[in-house]
Amino acid sequence: MTTDLPTSSTDTSVFDFQAWTDAQLQRTEQALSAWVGVDAPANLGHAMRYAVLDGGKRLRPLLVLAAAQAVNGLPEAALRAACAVELIHAYSLVHDDMPCMDNDVLRRGKPTVHVQFGEAQALLGGDALQALAFELLTPSEAEVPAAMQAKLCRILAQAAGSRGMAGGQAIDLASVGKALSEQELRHMHGLKTGALLQASVAMGVACAQVSQPVQQALARYAEALGVAFQVVDDVLDVVADAATLGKTPGKDAANDKPTFVSLMGLDGARNYANVLLQQALQALKESCLTDVRALSALAHMVVSRSH
Fold first, then answer.
1. Regarding beta strands 106-107 and 15-16, do their DSSP bridges make them parallel or antiparallel, or are they unpaired?
2. Keywords, A to Z (predicted)?
3. What does the DSSP assignment read for 87-156?
4. Residue 246's closest CA among 237, 255, 254?
5. Is residue 6 part of a domain?
6. Residue 134 domain boundaries
7. In 3-state terms, what secondary structure has residue 46?
8. Do the domain assignments include residue 7?
9. Distance between CA atoms of 67 and 57, rounded to whole angstroms?
10. For the segment 169-211, what is each residue's pLDDT rounded down to a tens digit?
11. Cα dihedral 119/161/269/103 (nearest 10)
């Protein structure tokens, strides 16, 4: 897709988003294939690779790489950060799909890991992916400076832990059958989903030395994007079929989970997603960075996606 997206006062050129995406995905897929599950014993590597490779939108790696590009970040650090955040995302899906959590049988258009390999192998595979994420972020200092490694690890650990993704999942499980306000729903998803999306942008930014105002503007962009992603996810859970969605639709309603659709209605949720998109684009403008075309296009992609 080629799009003309004015994203700053100095950049209104045509941006070939599809070509950019294809190039970044190729880099990411090659790196993941080279790093994930290699030499893991007792078929553990098969479960790890099944969970990560050949599936998924790779939104989080793309956000890392787009943010790093916008701030002229260190390429090696950005690629490792992109892969690391995808491994955390993949491990969380493996565990979330298990019978003790969401008990789902379909993910990315294929059987979930515990269905394919058994619960024990799925649990260990998720654990191994989580550990590998931080291993990737800590190569030799010749590849990535030690201070940058530490910052990247800190961002990812905070986003994945009790004050981020894991905490949000705990709130989600505790909220089944409860009526949540918009503020409570935003808080839950800000941790469960938004934290890792925000961390993706922050990790890309951390691949360079960036001023505080720029960091803050891109953090506002990431926050709006994170909420928009979940709003659209809730809409798709209602309107998309399994073949399009790649996972079981209607699960939230069946499990009596609060969603933006249950709170706002279908049209209200769609309108809210567009409001959040404008907030994200405004934050990019306020960053005053020369080239944020990839970040802008990713925001549009999140809101307009069909799966």
1. unpaired
2. Isoprene biosynthesis, Magnesium, Metal-binding, Transferase
3. HHHHHHHHHHTSTTTT---EETTEE-HHHHH-HHHHHHHHHHHHHHHHHHT---TTTS-HHHHHHHHHHH
4. 237
5. no
6. 20-304
7. helix
8. no
9. 17
10. 999 889 888 888 889 988 999 999 999 999 999 999 999 999 9
11. 10
